Amino acid sequence: MADPKGFLTTGREVAETRPAAERVKDWNEVYVRGSLLPIISKQAGRCMDCGIPFCHNGCPLGNLIPEWNDYAYREDWTAASERLHATNNFPEFTGRLCPAPCESACVLGINQPAVTIKNVEVSIIDKAWGNGDVTPQPPERLSGRTVAVIGSGPAGLAAAQQLTRAGHTVAVFERADRIGGLLRYGIPEFKMEKSHINRRIEQMRAEGTKFRTEVEIGRDIDAAGLRRRYDAVVIAAGATVSRDLPVPGRELNGVHFAMEYLPLANKVQEGDLTVSPISAEGKHVVVIGGGDTGADCVGTAHRQGALSVTQLEIMPRPGEERNTNQPWPTFPMLYKVTSAHEEGGERVYSVSTTHFEGDEDGNVQALHLVEVEFKDGRPAPKPGTERRIPAQLVTLAMGFTGTDRSNGLVQQFGVELDERGNVARDADFATNVDGVFVAGDAGRGQSLIVWAIAEGRSAARGVDRYLTGVSALPAPIRPTDRALAV
Ligand SMILES: Cc1cc2nc3c(=O)[nH]c(=O)nc-3n(C[C@H](O)[C@H](O)[C@H](O)COP(=O)(O)OP(=O)(O)OC[C@H]3O[C@@H](n4cnc5c(N)ncnc54)[C@H](O)[C@@H]3O)c2cc1C
Ligand code: SF4
């Protein structure tokens, strides 16, 4: 145990963020660089090394949290990094972006603020990269078997890295022009700078993973062609079909899916565009959807110079304390103030959009909404509460309905879908088609990066067993797992 009295003598401190007025002028990560290192060892010392570490179960990867807290407390960063990588291929992604269900399950959290697990995680991995401890781990010998991974989000990357290290020859096919999935073209730079992805890709290339960008399976290469060339296939194509809002005026210019708006802002940061063709500059912006994707639209609109930003949510505002039906150690639905919300804008709950209003040129100018109350689980409009808010840009961030079926991927492979429209799989992440596996949002539905990595690792074990009959690769989860988290 790190510090037997740490939890009694040290209070919780988290990474310091730059002042909101300063950070909205740039796209760099919102944190003060280097602010964690002076405090993090003491923070890791708050870990009680509980007999039953519930945080292990709260983390879908089963991260060995008390073990690396101990090493971080002792400032043995090399050993901490080794323990962290034992369960997580990409801690620099989760340490920045994970909502940290582990902290909701931390035993100290029962009656005190939880250990800052996510901050310890990111400190360990940043230190490891800085110290040169993250090096390529190519396999000692090749198996002679080949695997195609479709999609380069966190699920595809995790599966590819595990399978490459197990000795298989792995190619990742990505329809976008860069590797990374939603890490690259969904999540804004201010939440995670893309240099973190580039560095990992270099490590993976050095280990032997091949990457093919701008190749869409189903269109550019059909399923049969891929099956002929590879012994196994992992579908890690995400759940990229956005949920629409079919109300009058939806067709007006200026009403866009969040995933039409956010990738363009990312492309400006990559240097592909000088300005985004869909910009919030000088506009009243309304974001429909109160989740993470919506918050990313809010932060992006601030940085583009919006006149105002309003975020709408149909559900009531969540509470700030756990509900009795979401007791410790579950991951509760709580009111969250993200960095984007700290930067400004208004959040409106319990409202539903009735229609959009446009000008004679077909450009959106306003949004009409009505307050709702839930009756028998369904939102019912409250008469007399209709109102209009100005909007020259509206983004729809209401979630995703499943994996893309427009390119023929699902049909050509002949994989079955489950009742929610996701690719169905068994306990080994295998689909109904021999040699075809699925991982991440494509099988799970819209979820989190930590789940995508856990699924990629687990599917890799299924593939390895399929190819060789046995596997020494770890499988943190089964497809049906919901653990204590989301
Ligand atoms: C805006 C936004 C913000 C988010 N923020 C967070 C966050 O802060 N924290 C968090 O934990 N989660 C967040 N999420 C969720 C998280 O990003 C996803 O759960 C995760 O990326 C899913 O990983 P994946 O690998 O399954 O799929 P994806 O990341 O979606 O990657 C799938 C890839 O497959 C490619 N592809 C699809 N079809 C084909 C094909 N036929 N051929 C070749 N390539 C194909 C796609 O182009 C894409 O690159 C966010 C999601 C969004 C949309
Ligand atoms: S990956 Fe997420 S849940 Fe797991 S230890 Fe890190 S922050 Fe916690």
Task: Report on the architecture of this protein.
Helix 16 links the parallel strand 8 (about 310) and strand 9. The chain is built from 19 helices and 16 strands. The chain has helices at about 5-10, 20-25, 35-45, 55-60, 65-75, 75-85, 90-95, 100-105, 115-130, 155-165, 180-185, 195-205, 225-230, 260-270, 290-305, 340, 410-415, 440-445, 450-470, and strands at about 145-150, 170-175, 210-215, 230-235, 240, 255, 285-290, 310, 345-350, 350-360, 365-375, 380, 385-390, 395, 400, 435-440. It is of the alpha/beta class. The structure holds flavin-adenine dinucleotide (FAD) and iron/sulfur cluster (SF4). Flavin-adenine dinucleotide binds next to helix 10, strand 2, helix 15, helix 18 and helix 19.
Describe how the helices and strands are arranged:
Elements: H1 6-9, H2 20-23, H3 37-44, H4 54-58, H5 65-73, H6 77-85, H7 91-97, H8 101-104, H9 117-131, E1 146-150, H10 154-165, E2 169-174, H11 182-185, H12 195-207, E3 210-213, H13 223-229, E4 232-235, E5 241-242, E6 255-257, H14 258-270, E7 284-288, H15 292-304, E8 308-312, H16 339-342, E9 346-348, E10 351-358, E11 364-375, E12 378-381, E13 387-390, E14 393-396, E15 400-402, H17 409-413, E16 436-438, H18 441-444, H19 449-468
Parallel strand pairs: 1-2, 1-4, 2-3, 4-16, 6-14, 7-8, 7-14, 8-9
Antiparallel strand pairs: 5-15, 10-11, 11-12, 11-13
Helix pairs in contact: 3-5, 3-9, 5-6, 5-9, 6-9, 7-9, 10-19, 14-15
Bound molecules: flavin-adenine dinucleotide and iron/sulfur cluster.
